[in-house]
Amino acid sequence: MVSVATINLTRSDFDEKTKARLVMVDFWAEWCGPCKMSGPVLEQMSDEYAGRVVISKVDVDSETELASKYGVMSIPTVILFRDGQEVSRQIGFAGKAGYVSLLAKAGVV
Amino acid sequence: MSDIYDVIIIGSGPAGMTAGIYTSRAKLKTLMIAGEKWGGQLMLTTLVENFSGFAEGIQGPDLMANMRKQVERFGVEFKEENATEVDFGVKPFRVNNYSGRSVIIATGAEFKWLNLPNEQKLIGRGVSSCATCDAAFFKGKKVVVVGGGDAAMEEALVLSRHATEIVMVHRRDSFRASKIMQDRVFANPKIKVIWNAEVKDVLGENKVEGVVLSSGETLQTEGLFVAIGHSPATKIFEGKVNMGERGYAQREGDNFRTMSNVPGVFVSGDVHDYIYRQAVTAAGYGCEAALDCERWLEEEGH
């Protein structure tokens, strides 16, 4: 299966890449056990939702400023942005259903 | 019928995975309802040093990923979905929309929160159940850990790599953790213990600012890590199999020791074990259940 890798964001391009439409950002780190479950789910969703939602990720180790700017104190935390503004967030891994429901609440089915 | 499984395993911690290795190697058609959060409690740990065979230890999530590879290699169908409904009153048994001649319950145990008034709204904002996930966010900060078992010791030790001060709050005057873990905690200059005290509430609006102790005293802190244990994940089995007084599923078999009161439904791992609760014992129980299950299916003529 060909999988579109999720886009890696850094402090230099975060604003630029989240300013338009719907962007779901996964705050994660290499050492985080539950991130090993959420990562593949989000990669799969980036295919399923292609064209409707951009799914991207932030490595909290190299991007501590971004993590602290958005008040991330637990990972995985996934934040949904619409036109650069936070709409909602899912703290901790609640399965694919958790992310699907974030999107459903924002009107994406 | 080809769409009936010989065995449906519910759960994918060490018990379920080990059961799956045995049933699939016995050429039984096996389905694992692994849960959306598969892998069980070890997915939230770091270095596991007491699972035999790993001389230098192994990361908990890596151990579970290896077990998953192992069950899939022998042909177990692995579904990342939650079991929401079971019917053991029909033959074959039903689990969600699947049919199985036998079932192995290996759902393990669920994390226990303190049930403080402000706890839920501050999860991910300073309240945490997973130091290995969240410790790095507490660099240079002071944190509180609640609990007295091995899990609480590990939380405190992991936090000590990042936080400046760790206060452990424990309701008794001694820990029940293993000696080696206690020694590491007591030897760590960053960790202090408050004995015979409970946390009554956590303070803060958007992030944790302090906790209130049973003495009425308020401790300033930016983090509250909870590690007071687990309760058995038996909700979907209520009224379906017998539970003991403590709410754990019961092994009641005679010829088949791991069988529940329902013939063909077996129990293994932390869902029935309130004494040992180790990864390696759970794996052992999974093996027992799988062997019983295999023998039972044979006797039933499947």
**Total beta strands of chain B:** 19
Number of folding domains of chain B? 2
CA-to-CA gap between the ends of chain B?
Answer: 12 Å
Element string of chain B (H = helix, E = strand): EHEEEHEEEEEEHEHEHEEEEEEEH
CATH architecture of the largest domain in chain B: 3-Layer(bba) Sandwich
β-sheet strand percentage of chain B: 15-25%
Helix tally of chain B?
Answer: 6
User: Would you tell me the overall average pLDDT of chain B?
Assistant: 95
* Oligomeric state: heterodimer
For this structure, the CATH topology of the largest domain in chain B is FAD/NAD(P)-binding domain
- The class by helix and strand makeup of chain B works out as alpha/beta
The helix content of chain B is: 10-25%
- Which descriptor suits the 3D outline of chain B? elongated
β-strand number of chain A: 5
What labels describe this entry?
heterodimer, A: 109 residues, alpha/beta, five-stranded mixed sheet, 33% helix, 26% strand, globular, B: 302 residues, FAD/NAD(P)-binding domain, seven-stranded mixed sheet, 6 helices, 19 strands
Task: Report a brief summary of the structure.
The complex is a heterodimer of chains A (109) and B (302). By secondary structure, chain A is an alpha/beta fold. Chain A is built from 4 helices and 5 strands; from the N terminus they run E-H-E-H-E-H-E-E-H.
Give an overview in words.
The complex is a heterodimer of chains A (109) and B (302). Chain A has 109 residues and is of the alpha/beta class. Chain A is 33% helix and 26% strand. Chain A has helices at 14-18, 35-48, 64-69, 95-105; strands at 7-8, 22-28, 54-59, 77-82, 85-91. Chain A has a five-stranded mixed sheet with strand order 1-3-2-4-5. In chain A, helix 2 (35-48) links the parallel strand 2 (22-28) and strand 3. In chain B, helix 1 (14-25) runs parallel beside helix 2 and helix 4 runs parallel beside helix 5. In chain B, a hairpin with a 2-residue loop joins strand 7 (93-95) and strand 8 (98-105). Chain B is an alpha/beta fold. Chain B is 23% helix and 24% strand. Chain B has helices spanning 14-25, 60-73, 131-134, 150-159, 179-186, 279-299; strands at residues 4-10, 30-33, 47-48, 58-59, 77-79, 86-87, 93-95, 98-105, 109-111, 127-128, 142-146, 165-169, 191-194, 199-203, 210-213, 218-220, 223-226, 230-232, 265-267. The model of chain B has no long low-confidence stretch (mean pLDDT 95). In chain B, strands 1, 2, 5, 6, 7, 8 and 19 form a seven-stranded mixed sheet that branches. A five-stranded parallel sheet of chain B has the order 10-17-11-12-13, with helices on one face. Chain B contains six helices and 19 strands. Chain B folds into two domains: 4-110 and 230-299, 3-Layer(bba) Sandwich (FAD/NAD(P)-binding domain); 113-226, 3-Layer(bba) Sandwich (FAD/NAD(P)-binding domain). Classes of the chains: A alpha/beta (109), B alpha/beta (302).
